[in-house]
Amino acid sequence: MNPLYNAAISLYGAAARLAALSSPKVKEMLAGQAATLRTLAEERRRVAPEGYDLWLHAASLGEFEQGRPLMERLRREHSDKKILLTFFSPSGYRVRHNYAGADTVAYLPFDTPARVSAFLDAAAPKMAVFVKYEFWGNYLEQLAKRRIPTYIISAIFRPGQRFFRPGGGAFRRMLGNFTRLYVQDERSRELLAGIGIDRVTVSGDTRFDRVTDILRTAKNVPVVEKFVENSTFTLIAGSSWAPDEDLYIPWLKSHPQVKAVIAPHEFDDARIKRIAERLGPGARRLSELASPADLRGDETALIVDCFGLLSSLYRYGSMAWVGGGFGAGLHNINEAAVYGIPVVFGPNNRKFKEAADMQACGGAFEVTDRRSAETVLDRLLDDRAALHKAGEAAGNYIRANIGATDKIYPDLFG
């Protein structure tokens, strides 16, 4: 890559080291990156002496869920193939470092030429797959030089991205290093064609395939099942942040007949305590309840303080509020919609095609402030016909978009 890009990456690394002095999350990421080469050396000897057949990189949990159908199909059909999974975000690695669908899980080192060369030497991948938004110039350049087939799946492009702006030549050259790009929609294909990138297939989003698998394998959670047993309306708040809670918690307080299951995106002890205090005495932590018998009967809200349950918990809801739309970006709305329930979220959803599509078909609703939130929530609570119609639209949308993995997999492994 050009010197300006490498200088920017070096500055990014320096900023991360400085941030690590006060941020446990960044400190955890840097420690993980420092251990990657040692991990690969140990794991290569043990499971993949000839190198990994597939290296899949996902920034965090959302991208992991998009890459998961591909890894799991490869595991089912070719159990001898060795898979390396890397993350950039600690929130992804922390939750999935023991993922059984990969032979090795590690952090991805920063995209500097020396680190990239050391990583590729250590991993010796025979194929690389990046997910959605992962465009690392030095990794892509060195993969191309080593003639390692390299793909991106579930990618989506917008006119404002740097690839399509004046002065974006270095970023356009990144895209030329992909063997093929599998994009979500025709608009992305057209944008890429406009800058001379034509090794493109419109395949859709593999996340739809993943949430359909989740629907088939959803866990029963007896405590939650008992909690909602006599509820006429249950709100499931998934991956919520404080700005989400600032809107839906006051609404819950003014509608005591509504039950809620709240799964905050981060649930350190102080954060859980704040949520419980805001909800009042009817709130209980899920971890406090070993069985349905531990329910008192007067609970109005359960706060989920553990990983791995959210995708199954949406099945108990009348509707879902999915967080992130008032911050860095919307979390996974498909996980909720697959159960045939309407979804509500904040305004920062422009990068998510499924958010626009689901609103267009009537299965999802954007809220921007307390007034708009109350309007949407009141309507879903009071108008059962509207609630049913919206939920049906959401479920139909998911079913209509299944099949991306079937388009991609034969190209890569057929």
Describe this structure in words.
- This protein is of the alpha/beta class and 414 residues long.
- 48% of the residues lie in helices and 14% in strands.
- It is built from 18 helices and 14 strands.
- The strands form two sheets. The protein has a seven-stranded parallel sheet with strand order 3-2-1-4-5-6-7, sandwiched between helices. A seven-stranded parallel sheet has the order 10-11-9-8-12-13-14.
- It is globular.
- The two termini are 33 Å apart.
Taking Cα atoms only, what radius of gyration do you get, to the nearest Å? 22 Å
- Which sequence of strands runs across the widest sheet? 3-2-1-4-5-6-7
Secondary structural class: alpha/beta
- What share of residues are in beta strands? 5-15%
What level of helicity do the residues show? 40-55%
Largest sheet: 7 strands, parallel
Q: Which overall shape is indicated by the principal axes computed on the Cα atoms?
A: globular
Euclidean distance between termini CA atoms: 33 Å
How many H/I helices? 18
Question: What is the average per-residue confidence, as pLDDT, rounded to a whole number?
Answer: 94
* Oligomeric state: single chain
Which spans have pLDDT < 50 for at least 5 consecutive residues? none
Number of strand elements: 14
